[in-house]
Write a structure and sequence with these properties.
single chain, Penicillin V Acylase, Chain A, about 475 residues
């Protein structure tokens, strides 16, 4: 009987999510203060350019409640997409991931973020969406549990299963000094992932916590960290990252990566602060090369965070680029199976393209050029422009070669799903520019793709069109489309 009731609730959630799936035109919603719950008095949402902007403010519990209530349809839809993706890739059921989150991650979380996650559950329930705390914890660990913990678990317990390779997601850079047009910092990032989840990675969070710094970041509905990671805080810290592909490692005694990433953006006032917070309780989950900028000093950094090894580079005159390659020889040797000499691999080809663009554009880099970089289709390995997995704006759904670093397979529907950029002046104003969908402006249409590639029919119930929106500027405190 309990399973029948749970199934009925999930059906109701699915209907609710589908009702909202097509509503991506620009529109402003009434502020949440028009509701009866006092916890919503300082919160609101609106839609613009394919994004959902949400303002959250108050105690951890209040921020969580606002998050769950204002984004209930998007969270319901997004969680089901994550569930489908995670169970398919790991060949584990959702209970396995729920149990791991409850038993291993939840007890190690700070009280502040436990209260925020419980608040999300409470907010969902206020809108009739019946997900529990274990669901929300597993959703927040959507990167680290399937791709990092599961292969470690299988190896530890000698459990047969699919080969799982930590993903190589995103292209990014940060530049300063003589590299940029005005000598300030420019930072930009596009999110690479499967279109199933990527087309839902469309939330702009404006968060005013009771403690710590105000945050403006992009993110996934229901997740307390950016998770593809692009954001700025009101101390002037500018943050992004790209994943270290072919990474192996997990520490079951560590703290969740999603909590450390959120905590670092919320509390760090310097590059050193950010590094310290990310190292505290490092569990190896979602291992990244973090690209950081401090608007106050003009300094930028690359923080390569493995499990056994890590490295930090910094400068006030130059740049760092990211495309999923590991750079430090010790990190490569001890934490990965990455081959830095394979020019034909996506991370290395994109790194080569980044280096060429940085040199060609020295002294001219600004937000406008950053947008052009994120939309770039040059395949450095083949020496020509083509939309494929080796371009900065990735399109793996058109590539017959597939992407061996991701183990996605030929023609997998994935690639660059959105882009963001900002400079020091925008960071001071707590603002960035973002484009939903491929940064190049191309659309992905689900129906013709699935007709041509029936091997991906397992995605058919959740995969939808991903149409590129306009480049749109967002800022903290924004009340509606500007």
């Amino acid at each position: 009987m309990r399973r029948i009731l749970e199934f009925s609730l999930l059906v109701a959630v699915g209907v609710c999510a589908l009702a909202f799936a097509g509503k991506r035109a620009d529109r402003a919603s009434a502020t949440a203060s028009s509701g009866s719950d006092p916890r919503l008095a300082k919160a609101w949402r609106f839609e613009q350019g394919g994004w959902v902007y949400v303002h959250l403010e108050g105690s951890p519990a209040d921020i969580g409640f606002q998050h769950g209530a204002l984004l209930a349809p998007e969270i319901a839809d997004g969680l089901e997409a994550v569930k489908l993706n995670a169970t398919h890739s790991t060949k584990k059921d959702w209970k396995f991931l729920r149990d791991a989150g409850r038993q291993m991650l939840w007890p190690k979380m700070d009280r502040e973020y436990q209260e925020e996650l419980q608040g999300i559950v409470d907010g969902l329930k206020s809108k009739g969406v019946a997900y529990d705390l274990d669901d929300v914890v597993a959703l927040n660990a959507m990167e680290e549990l399937p791709d990092y913990y599961t292969p470690w678990y299988n190896a530890q317990h000698k459990v047969p299963g699919p080969k799982i390779v930590s993903p190589g997601n995103c292209s990014a850079f940060v530049a300063t000094g003589s590299a940029t047009k005005d000598g300030g910092i420019v930072i930009a990032h596009n999110n690479w992932t499967g279109y199933l989840t990527g087309e839902r990675w469309r939330i702009v969070f404006d968060i005013v916590p009771a403690r710590g710094h105000r945050i403006l970041m992009d993110g996934y509905p229901g997740v307390i960290a950016s998770d593809d990671d692009f954001g700025v805080n009101d101390s002037g810290l500018m943050v992004t990252e790209t994943t270290i592909t072919q990474f192996e490692g997990w520490d079951p005694n560590g703290k969740p990566e999603f909590e450390r990433a959120r905590k670092a953006l919320q509390y760090a006032e310097s590059i050193d602060d950010y590094v310290r917070i990310m190292l505290d309780g490092n569990n190896g989950g979602y291992a990244n090369d973090w690209l950081l900028g401090d608007r106050k000093t003009g300094e930028v950094a690359q923080f390569e965070l493995g499990l056994k090894r890590h490295q930090l580079w910094r400068t006030k005159d130059g740049y760092f680029v990211g495309s999923n390659f590991a750079l430090d020889p010790q990190v490569i040797a001890e934490d990965t199976k990455f081959d830095p000499k394979d020019r034909g691999s996506s991370p290395n080809a994109r790194r080569e393209r980044w280096e060429a663009l940085m040199k060609e554009s020295k002294g001219k880099i600004d937000v406008e050029s950053a947008r052009a970089f994120l939309a770039d289709h040059v395949d450095a390995f083949e020496g020509r422009a083509q939309a494929n997995e080796r371009a900065l704006c990735g399109h793996t759904e058109v590539s017959p070669r597939g992407v061996k670093e991701w183990e996605w397979g030929a023609y997998y529907p994935g690639g660059a799903v959105q882009g963001k950029a900002m400079d020091s002046r925008m960071a001071e104003a707590m603002s960035f520019v973002a484009r939903m969908g491929h940064p190049c402006g191309q659309d992905f249409l689900a129906a013709p793709f699935l007709k041509t590639h029936p091997e991906y029919s397992w995605l058919s119930k959740r995969l939808t069109d991903m149409k590129a929106g306009p480049w749109t500027t967002f800022k903290t405190g924004q009340r509606g489309p500007g």
